[in-house]
Each structure stands twice: as C-alpha cells, then as structure tokens.
Design a protein that fits this description.
By secondary structure, the protein is an alpha/beta fold. The protein has two domains: 6-126 and 296-314, 3-Layer(aba) Sandwich (Rossmann fold), CATH 3.40.50.720; 128-289 and 321-339, Dihydrodipicolinate Reductase, domain 2 (2-Layer Sandwich). The chain is built from twelve helices and 14 strands. The longest helix has 20 residues, at 315-334.
Length: 360
C-alpha cells in the first residue's frame, strides 16, 4: 500500500503529454492529475477535458503560486527544461522531466547545482530502463551469471520525413538540442549505459544525408567502457524499416532486444554460449512481464518518494548519458576521439551539442 496519493501536474500539453497522463491514470491509488499547464490555454483546456483534470493554468508560475502539487511532469520543448525545472526546484516541487533533459552538458550541471539547493529533486524520463527484461539483464550481470560483457550493439534506426521537420524547433541545436543523437536514439543508448555503466572513450561520425535540418540525420559511434566492453551506436532518421535493437554479447550468453518504441518480454531473446545452457533458465524463471514505458518509471519514482530516496533516473545518472551525446557530436565534428571528462565546463561542446557549428 502506498504511503500517500501524489498530486501531479502536467506542464506542456502537446503530443507526449498523453503518455504522461496515461501513466498517472494507470496508478489511480497512488497518483492523481490535478492540473494541466500550457501557454496555449485553449489547448490546456482541451487536454484537461480529455483527461478529467480539474484545473488549468497558463504558466508554471501560476500553478506553483496556487500550491498543492507534489510532482510536475515537464513535457515542454527541450529548450525550456532548465528554467522550468529550476523554478520547480526553487519552490521545492519535484520534477519528472522529458528527454532530452537539457540542451547541453553545461545546462545539466547548472540544474544539478539548483537541485543541490532544493528540498526537491529531478527525475529524467528514460523509461526503457524499467521494463522487466532490462531489470533482469542488470541483475544477471551483477550476479555474474552472464559473465563479463564483451561486445554490444545499439541501433535506433527510424524514419522521419521532411514534413516531420516542418515544426520549427525540430532539427535545431538551439531548441531541440540536436538530431537523432539527442532526440531519438538517446533512449536506446541510455538503456545501453544503464547496463554497461560508465563509458570511457568515443569515436564518432555524423552526417546530414537527406533531411532539411541544421543537425545530423545520422550518427554512428564506437564506444569503450570502463568494464572493458566495446559497443557501436547508430542513430538514424532515414531508415525505412524502423527498428530499435540492442545486443549484448557476454562470456556466457548473447542477450538481444528488438522493438520500436517500447518492449515487453517476448521482444527479448537469449542464446546461451556452449556449455552454459543453464543461463536460459536464469533469464526466464519467474520473470514478470513489465512493459517499458512511462508507467513503469513513474511507479519507481513514487516508490522512491515514499521511501525518501533518490528518484530514478537522477540528474547525476543522466549526466553520463548527456555527456555521451555531447562526446558523439564533439568527436564527429572535430574528427577526434573524446574521453569522458574531456568536455570541461565552458568548452564549446559542453556549452552546445553542436559546438561552434556542424561542418555542413
């Protein structure tokens, strides 16, 4: 039984807000939607009517002034995340913030500093960490059942046509933060990082192959990890057969995942190495089928708030992911390998994912 019922507001009532509303309404004994906020008040009212939300506000400031909210879901364009999250933190209100969490590494560090001064905290939307398959994979690696991770593949190969980029803020470093490296593939390689841990070095390339954007529409990276594993990461928006793929080749088994925007247990396969057939049972026995998605992460956040512990995924955890994104751009645009820690505060690719500008 949950300790309390949390009062939740959704700020930004565009497309992704529906996923957040579904997550809240999937936990009716633990959470309730009490407000919708949008600069377009008519859109906020329509959203509130759809989800039976009792109050609407034209701004976050107005919402916070009204008080009595425990958790704000930030579903606004990425360029607004830092000022809005900082405003919540100053009011000691917790935040669940959509991806990408910030436009740059320096912005994330600014938000970390604001969080240190607050009684509240920020959790970042990286919902693929919370499906039962990913939870089991981390458990088996931690227990040594799979042996050492050796090789990994991470492919987010999707398709977005020119019309998709007609929305003015898409495909820009200033508002979206980047192309598929920031806005699309970040979910998959965040899951990769949650499995393999801290990365060490990245060598990358990026290209604008077909789309009318300021940013890349394809990036590729080779990454080494502190635990010795090596991985390739591909992010694409020009791939007609869309899929999201992860593969982990460990000493005792290969574990694979293929899905598109969310996975369940049938999307995973495990292939034991010769002589390690028992690994298949360790994977499948008593494995619950929890779908990756906002409901699973929100439930974990509410568990943490009940317990008074850090809510997953913390800003500190997210920094590992955002730093990798920055390093992919830095390596691709400078044609040099980048080590974790190279992008110091105030340096070009810490200030802006595109640094001084894309080569095209």
């Amino acid at each position: 039984m949950a300790d309390r019922k949390y009062r939740i507001a959704i700020v930004g009532t565009g497309g992704i807000a529906a996923s957040h509303a579904r997550a809240v309404t999937s936990l009716p004994d633990r959470a309730e939607l009490v407000a919708g906020v949008d600069v377009d008040l008519d859109r906020a009212k329509a959203f509130a009517g759809q989800w039976d939300i009792p109050a609407v506000y034209p701004s976050l400031t107005a919402l916070l002034a009204a008080g009595d909210v425990d958790l704000v879901h930030l579903c606004t364009p990425p360029s607004t995340h830092v000022p809005l999250a900082a405003e919540c933190l100053e009011a000691d209100v917790n935040v669940f913030m959509e991806k990408p969490p910030t436009l740059s590494l320096d912005e994330l560090d600014t938000l970390l500093e604001a969080e240190r001064k607050s009684a509240a905290q920020v959790a970042c939307v990286f919902q693929h960490r919370f499906g039962s398959g990913a939870v089991r994979l981390r458990q088996l690696l931690a227990d040594g059942v799979l042996g050492r991770p050796l090789v990994a593949l991470c492919n987010t190969v999707w398709y977005r046509d020119d019309a998709y980029f007609a929305v003015p803020w898409r495909g820009t470093f200033e508002v979206e933060g980047g192309g598929p490296t920031m806005g699309h593939g970040i979910h998959q390689y965040d899951l990769l990082l949650s499995i393999l841990g801290p990365w060490n070095k990245v060598t990358a390339l990026a290209a604008r192959q077909a789309r009318p954007t300021q940013t890349e529409d394809v990036s590729m990276a080779m990454v080494t990890f502190e635990n010795g594993a090596v991985a390739s990461i591909v992010n694409s928006l020009v791939s007609a057969r869309q899929t999201s793929e992860l593969r982990f080749d460990c000493e005792n088994a290969t574990v694979e995942l293929e899905h598109l925007y969310g996975y369940q247990n049938p999307d995973w396969t495990i292939t034991p190495a010769p002589g390690h057939e028992e690994v298949a049972d360790a994977w499948s026995t008593d494995l619950p089928d929890v779908k990756s998605g906002h409901p699973a992460q929100l439930a974990a956040i509410l568990d943490a708030l009940d317990a008074g512990t850090p809510a997953p995924v913390t800003l500190t955890e997210s920094r590992n992911t955002v730093e990798l994104a920055a390093a992919i751009y830095a390596s691709a645009f400078t044609d040099k390998p980048i080590h974790r820690g190279d992008l110091t505060q105030g340096s070009p690719y810490a200030q802006r994912m595109g640094g001084p500008g894309a080569p095209w």
